[in-house]
Amino acid sequence: MHAIRNENSHHVIGAWLATGFFGLALLISTHQLKAAESNPFEAHYHAQNTSHLKSLDANPDTKIYLSNHKDDDNISMLESGHDLIGTSGFSAAEASPDLALAHAKAIKADVVLFYRKYQSAKTASSKIQLIKEAAKKGQEIDPNDLEEEPTQYRYFASYWAKLPPPTLGVHVIKLKTRNAQGAEEVVESLPGLKVVAVIKDSPAANAQVARGDSLLKIADTVLNEPEDLFKAVRQYAGTAVPLKYERAGETHQSTVMLNAGKP
């Protein structure tokens, strides 16, 4: 009889533990959901890629900067040796920069750039115009359309991590052009890889490579796609190699001393 009672007790305890842990998991999940809802920068966060980039520091001293020059800031961050972790964007009446900083710390970013841009508001003049239009058309006005509405702003935040010293130190893209040939439009690739940013004090910067240049060849590798550059830089890391590039329609030759490391 005792053995039977013990076995039943174990079943009861096991069932209680199962439901208890399920309830705890549900509670944690609900808490996380509410946390995301309370912080719009977390709720509207989109990672740049699946590499899970984060600060090299286990506990970074995350900095926040307020700005209104997103495109220029992106180039400046790339040139200073940072890479994009992800972004948040949404519309709201109010969202504190502290919330952006809190999310930046949660994803271990070194820097977060915060932007706020005026979006819309229902002004007195717009309400008067609404009344005039309704009177002209003989229409009724919904009282809700005349209520005061808070000013809406567009919020955006970008999160950045500092990278280790680069092997070469450039960010490139492949440019293509569209040409009309008869009734058809043909997409053609432009030669080389366009430099969108050069990391300061990097081997590329020391070799006088500048933003806007087109990299044509490094060592024996002709550069048609970004992957060509990545493979060549890995292959020749730690060595001095010739670099051919184009600037303002003129071809230039330089020697770049690659660091030993990742590109």
Give an overview in words.
Strands 6, 9, 10, 11, 12 and 13 form a six-stranded antiparallel sheet that branches. A five-stranded mixed sheet has the order 1-3-5-4-2, with helices on both faces. The chain is built from seven helices and 13 strands. Strand 12 and strand 13 form a beta hairpin. It has helices spanning 2-38, 40-43, 70-79, 97-106, 124-137, 203-206, 226-235, and strands spanning 45-47, 63-66, 82-92, 111-120, 152-162, 170-173, 176-181, 184-189, 193-198, 214-218, 221-222, 240-247, 250-257. Mean pLDDT is 83; it is low at 1-35. The termini are far apart. The protein has 263 residues and is an alpha+beta fold. It folds into three domains: 2-38; 45-162, no CATH class; 170-257, Roll (Pdz3 Domain).
Structural class: alpha+beta
Contiguous runs where pLDDT drops below 50 for at least 5 residues: 1-35
Sketch the major β-sheet: 6 strands, antiparallel
The number of helices is: 7
Radius of gyration: 28 Å
Number of domains: 3
**What proportion of the residues form beta strands (DSSP E)?**
25-35%
Mean pLDDT: 83
Q: Approximately how much helix is present in the residues? A: 25-40%
Gross geometry: flat
Distance between the termini: 72 Å
Order of helices and strands: HHEEHEHEHEEEEEHEEHEE
Quantity of strands, as a count = 13
